[in-house]
Each structure stands twice: as structure tokens, then as C-alpha cells.
Design a protein that fits this description.
A hairpin with a 2-residue loop joins β7 and β8. 52% of the residues are buried. The strands form 2 sheets. Strands 9-8-7-6-10-11-12 form a 7-stranded mixed sheet, sandwiched between helices. The chain has 445 residues and is of the alpha/beta class. The longest helix has 23 residues. Helix content is 48%, strand content 15%. It has 17 helices and 12 strands. It folds into 2 domains: 184 residues, Leucine Dehydrogenase, chain A, domain 1 (Rossmann fold, 3-Layer(aba) Sandwich); 155 residues, Rossmann fold. Bound molecules: NADPH dihydro-nicotinamide-adenine-dinucleotide phosphate and (2Z)-2-iminopentanedioic acid. The site of NADPH dihydro-nicotinamide-adenine-dinucleotide phosphate has 23 residues, from α9. The site of (2Z)-2-iminopentanedioic acid (2IT) has 11 residues, from β3 and α15.
Length: 445
């Protein structure tokens, strides 16, 4: 494989899809050597087949808001690769959603799901619908209209969607209700379901908890722990909440959270009351973090800024893609940061990752360290198939083991000659080998 040639071809075919091209480029760079050492991959054109989704469904969603006005949005489902299991991945409702973003997320999901050790392929979907300021009734009507199109192509053994930005427990409930009505069956077709109707304990916490478990493993390689560490978190959604909860429980001090309006710096750190308030802020549907500084006067609000200029030991970006650039990375390093664990998908730009690697700090890519979310989704599917529910302790122990296994896989494939662990390389190679070998076994299809 020639990375440059492949990228030129993809750029010509998919002009302007910058997030998708960025995600593919990162993987190709990591796997180039392994690929070229194994001519069977080239003979079967594995990479050309892997970088294009199996199929994409794009559809129109018409719905009526509370004032009686008719609205039209666009929806998509990208079914990327099902070599190792049914397509699996979240749905994102956010005005920024476009095909480039969903293709990047679906592509990442293939490798992430392979790393979880569970049988799940990769997919992603969503809509440019903006949940901000919408009533529950509007969210319900939109979700129902979305499912009216989506239900044709999903199923518990075909494609199993879940949540992502803008899609949490409430949205999964409305989507599931409509699916159940149309399909006339009650199956594990979505994950992140309510606990009374097939959901798994620990699923809401899983991504954030898993991210912290993964960072614990990285820190342990240096004889370090979270105890007494100062931690910057970005975002204030589902992933940020889970991460803040676990860091605090382990004796770390979370000093920042962020939203689209700016970030909060709280020198005293978060406790259970503040984390609960963060949930209230999120549930308000206003998408602002500024009120935190009014509620807790020891905290300050920095309008329009990101939290990466604060002096911290550990940074956990948990908001969205490309929210931490090369300059931010340099600031973190200058302030003595020793570990960056991605909770979001692709929050660090390629320049930022290069800065972390040059400075040889611990850095984990989202496809490894945020895999706990989809990992517990996989455990939810297992519980649904077996028609039983595991306890919180059982699910948490399995999640913890999954994160340890992913860490070990990254070490196996990413440890360089000088002992430094390139977790990006490790995660990409480990995920790729499992999917590529499965594709070889299954022939040219
Ligand atoms: P939430 O909707 O709960 O929170 C997302 C946060 O990011 C919000 O503060 C949101 O504010 C902000 N945000 C979203 N898009 C943008 C944007 N384009 N620019 C600036 N800020 C933005 O989502 P989650 O916590 O579920 O997801 C956070 C990240 O974690 C995402 O990258 C997601 O893909 C990833 N992830 C989620 C998993 C899950 O199980 N939920 C699993 C693995 C990864 P606003 O909407 O106002 O912009
Ligand atoms: O990015 C992700 O891994 C998710 N949003 C979770 C996907 C899932 O199927 O649980």
C-alpha cells in the first residue's frame, strides 16, 4: 500500500470530507508496515474494501413542531463493515452532522468494536436535527419520524444503533417505542435502553468509567495513579459525567468542564453535589456551562475558551472531534501534563497527537479508551439474547476487564524499540488485524 496514493484517490472521490479523510489517514499511517509485510491483504484489496462503507442510507425526515410548523431534516445510517458481527454504533443528533462526520465515526467504530473483544461490526448514523431548546413532545415526534425510515435496515442481528451526542436515554426510548410498533417485536435492536425494558446497568456510565480505567492502566506503566492528580475534562455530557464521577471516586481532582459557551475552572475540584449539578445543567437542554460559576462562586467561567491552558496532570477530552489542537497540546505539555485519555471520538487533531508523541507522554486514542461505551452495549446485547440481567458489579467487572484487554492489545502492537508505547499505532494494528483476517476468511464479497 502507498498511503499517499490511497489518500489522493480518496480525496478525489470524496472531496471536502475532511473528518473522514483525517480518520482514514491516521489508520493507514499506523498499519502501513504490517500491511506491506502481509501480501495476502494487498492481493484481496483489503484496504480499498475497508475504507468504503458497505452502504449508506440517506433519508428525509419531516415532522411538525409544537407551533404547528413543518420541519425537514436529513438522516443517515452508514453501515461500514460487518466482518466480525452486526453493524454497531451510535446515532448523533446535532446541527453539525454531515456525511463526512458520520463516515469518520463509522470508520473509527470498526476498529474500536474489534478491540472490545466482542463480535460487533462498525456503523454510525444520525441527523442534523438540533435538540437544543426542543420540548419532549418535539423530540418524540422527531425520533418517531426518524425511526419510520431507519427501521427497514436495522435489526438485532443486522444493525444495532445506540446513543451518541444528542441521543441519550430519552431519545433511545422514543426510537425504541416506534421500532417495536413497526416491527411488532421486542428485541435488543437498540442499546442504551431503559433498565425496565432491556437496558444494562452501567451503560450510562460505561464510556466515562472505561476511559478512566484505561488511563489507570497507562498510569500504572509509570507507577502512577489518579490519587491527588489534577484533571481537566472537556464537555459536560454523558461521557464527561462518567469520567468526572470515576476520577473523583479514585481521589483525583476534576477542575474543569466545558460547553459550547466556554469552560469552567473550579480550583476546589468537583464533588458529588457538583457532579449532580452538571447533570442538571445538561438536562436543561440549554447547552451552557456558565451557570456553574453562579451556583459555585469559587469557580470561574472563561467564555469561548477551551480548558487546555490550565495547569493539570491529566487531560480527558470528552466533548467532540478536533477540540484539542497542536497549540493546546503544547500548552498542556508546558504545564507538566503527563497523560491524555480521549473520551470523545478524535478530539485531538493530528498535530496535537504529534506533539504528545514527540514529548513521549501517555496518550490514548478514543477508539481504544472510549470503547467501554460500546463494550457495555455489547454486554447489553448478550443479556438481551440470554433474556437475563447482570448485576452492576458483574457488568462493571466485565467493563474493567475489557479496558485492561484493550490496553494489553495496544501494548502488544504499539510498543516501540525504546519502550515508548504508541497507543495510536497499537490500537489501529490490533483492530485492523482482527477485521482484515475475518474479511480474508469470508472471501471477496
Ligand atoms: P453529549 O450530547 O452528552 O455531550 C456532548 C458535548 O459536546 C456537549 O457539551 C455538546 O454541546 C458538545 N458538542 C457537541 N458537538 C459539538 C461541536 N460541534 N462543537 C462544540 N461542542 C460540541 O454527548 P456524549 O457525552 O455522549 O458524547 C461526547 C463525545 O464522546 C462524542 O465525541 C461522542 O462521539 C463520544 N462517545 C460517546 C459515547 C457514548 O456512549 N455516549 C461512546 C463513545 C464515545 P453542544 O451540543 O451544545 O454543541
Ligand atoms: O462512539 C461510540 O462508541 C458510541 N457512541 C457508542 C456506540 C454504541 O453502540 O454503544
Amino acid at each position: 500500500m502507498n498511503v499517499k496514493e490511497l489518500m489522493n484517490g480518496l480525496e478525489a472521490k470524496h472531496p471536502g470530507e475532511k473528518e473522514y479523510l483525517q480518520a482514514v489517514h491516521e489508520v493507514l499511517e499506523s498499519i502501513e508496515d504490517v500491511y506491506n509485510e502481509n501480501p495476502q491483504y494487498e492481493a484481496a484489496k483489503i484496504i480499498e474494501r475497508l475504507v468504503e462503507p458497505d452502504r449508506i442510507l440517506t433519508f428525509k425526515i419531516s415532522w411538525v413542531d409544537d407551533s404547528g410548523k413543518v420541519n425537514v431534516n436529513l438522516g443517515h445510517r452508514v453501515q461500514f463493515n460487518n466482518a466480525i458481527g452486526p453493524y454497531k454504533g451510535g446515532l448523533r443528533f446535532h446541527p453539525s452532522v454531515n456525511l463526512s462526520i458520520l463516515k469518520f465515526l463509522g470508520f473509527e467504530q470498526i476498529f474500536k468494536n474489534a478491540l472490545t473483544t466482542l463480535p460487533m461490526g462498525g456503523g454510525k448514523g444520525g441527523s442534523d436535527f438540533d435538540p437544543k431548546g426542543k420540548s419532549d413532545a418535539e423530540i418524540m415526534r422527531f425520533a418517531q419520524a426518524f425511526m419510520l425510515e431507519l427501521w427497514h435496515i436495522i435489526g438485532p442481528n443486522t444493525d444495532v444503533p445506540a446513543g451518541d451526542i444528542g441521543v441519550g436515554g430519552r431519545e433511545i426510548g422514543f426510537l425504541y417505542g416506534m421500532y417495536k410498533k413497526l416491527a411488532r417485536e421486542h428485541t435488543g435492536v437498540l442499546t442504551g435502553k431503559g433498565l425496565n425494558w432491556g437496558g444494562s446497568l452501567i451503560r450510562p456510565e460505561a464510556t466515562g468509567f472505561g476511559n478512566v480505567y484505561f488511563a489507570q492502566e497507562m498510569l500504572a506503566t509509570k507507577g502512577e495513579t489518579f490519587k491527588g492528580k489534577v484533571v481537566a475534562i472537556s464537555g459536560f455530557g454523558n461521557v464527561a459525567w462518567g469520567a468526572a464521577t470515576k476520577v473523583t471516586e479514585l481521589g483525583g481532582k476534576v477542575v474543569t468542564i466545558s460547553g459550547p459557551d466556554g469552560y469552567i475552572y473550579d480550583p476546589e475540584g468537583m464533588d458529588a453535589e457538583k457532579i449532580e449539578y452538571m447533570l442538571e445543567l445538561r438536562a436543561s437542554n440549554n447547552d451552557i456551562v456558565a451557570p456553574y460559576a453562579e451556583e459555585f462562586p469559587e469557580a470561574s467561567f472563561f467564555a469561548g475558551e477551551k480548558p487546555w491552558s490550565q495547569k493539570v496532570d491529566i487531560a480527558l477530552p470528552c466533548a467532540t472531534q478536533n477540540e484539542l489542537n497542536g497549540d493546546d497540546a503544547k500548552k498542556l505539555i508546558a504545564n507538566g501534563c503527563i497523560c491524555v485519555g480521549e473520551g470523545a471520538n478524535m478530539p485531538s487533531t493530528e498535530e496535537a497527537i504529534a506533539v504528545f508523541h514527540e514529548n513521549k507522554i501517555l496518550f490514548s486514542p478514543g477508539k481504544a479508551s472510549n470503547a467501554g461505551g460500546v463494550g457495555v452495549s455489547g454486554l447489553e446485547m448478550t443479556q438481551n439474547s440470554n433474556k437475563l440481567n447482570w448485576t452492576k458489579e458483574e457488568v462493571d467487572a466485565k467493563l474493567h476487564q475489557i479496558m485492561k484487554d484493550i490496553h494489553a492489545a495496544c501494548m502488544k502492537h504499539g510498543t516501540l524499540e525504546d519502550g515508548f508505547v504508541d497507543y495510536v499505532k497499537g490500537a489501529n494494528i490490533a483492530g485492523f488485524l482482527k477485521v482484515a483476517d475475518s474479511m480474508l476468511d469470508q472471501g471477496v464479497i
